[in-house]
Amino acid sequence: MSEQNTGDQGTYDVVVVGGGAAGLSAALVLSRARRRVAVVEGGAPRNAPAQHMHGFLSRDGVPPTEFLATGAAEVAGYGGELLDDEVANAEKNRETGEFTLRLASGGQLTARRVLVATGLRDVLPDLPGARERWGADVLHCPYCHGYEVRDQPLGVIGGTEPGAVARAVHVALLLPQWSADVTFFPHTMEPTRHDLDRLAARGVRVVTGEVARLAVEDGRLRGVELADGRAVPRSAVFVAPTFVPNGDVLTALGCETGPDGWVVTDTRGRTSVPGVWAAGNVADPGAQVISAAGAGSTAAIAINADLVEEESAVPVAAR
Description:
The chain is α/β, with parallel strands linked by helices. It has 7 helices and 17 strands. Helix content is 25%, strand content 24%. Helix 1 (21-32) runs parallel beside helix 2 (64-77) and helix 1 (21-32) runs parallel beside helix 7 (289-311). Residues 12-293 form the FAD/NAD(P)-binding domain.
């Protein structure tokens, strides 16, 4: 449903950067509010490797590509413009308050408001087999994929990055709800005594030693191999990737970030730069597809209210 459009098309009420769940949800609300909206769809969504998405009421089990195609068609049906392009740079005109977004293809867009919904990227553990089976039987979210691997031998691999360590233990504590056979591989991390006691209380087996690779045979994960030669058969493995926001547009516009490197927003997605909002995984690494869509809707309503406030402002001389 995308169309290539790289010329200067005048001023849009809103340019949405990112065509995932958050971006398309926002564009749908704004297009139905009869705003002039362009969506710069960008690259492949984070969940592109997955065959199905789950936990989205009425859309459970739908392939991500189908979900996004349906959403794009709905936006287009209300007059929203879909651009198969990426934003290379963005800046704000301090005099007019408008935004100029330069596209990778060479064109540019002008907008009164900008919503950034570019998501995040997952940096996986540097293990042979991890990238190859990512989204199939190498997973990260029990709520997204746990039911599909229920009652199977499952593994969780730890790491050394601080956030990843906490997430790995958290996932290992969750998984016994889906399987009675869960093994935690600390890999290069050192779990605390408290962590080990909690894992034991949940019936999680702990296998120490550095992981060498994930064994893949005949297009399927077969197990976890350790550096000392031991092999532990597993049907699926959960890892704790490092989440990195795709925040280049927000950085270019000067939006404030917190100590953790993520953009600072209010509850409706407003950033520190007037006229710029952020929604979905670019602002909230824990957002599921359904909550990202909700955040996009919330931001869209706030953006429209902001535009109405601007349009209804009475000049001082007329008061």
